[in-house]
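[job 0417] fold request received: Chitin-binding type-2 domain-containing protein
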Amino acid sequence: MYRSKVGVVVAMVFLGVLCAREGRGQVPDPTVNCVHAGRNPPLNTTAGVCPKQYFLCWLNGTGQWTAAAYNCPGRTLFDTRSLKCRLNPTCP
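[job 0417] inference complete; emitting structure tokens
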């Protein structure tokens, strides 16, 4: 069990460094943007408008939310229903 947790931590650190090098993964205020674990739309999203940005949220070892901000690639937008980046999504 200890070995698998170390592997997860190493992978998360590696991904954090990789995203930081690419200009993504900025750390937003997780208490504002995290509603559940996984991908979350910005809470200030206008009704009927799909955002370009989304937040990847998880609970850290102390039970606090941690988040990283990402932008959907190319011309895709964040579909607030499927929680994925898509071309021409319909957002409520």
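[job 0417] notes: Residues 5-23 have pLDDT under 50 and may be disordered. DSSP finds two helices and five strands in the chain.
[job 0417] exit 0
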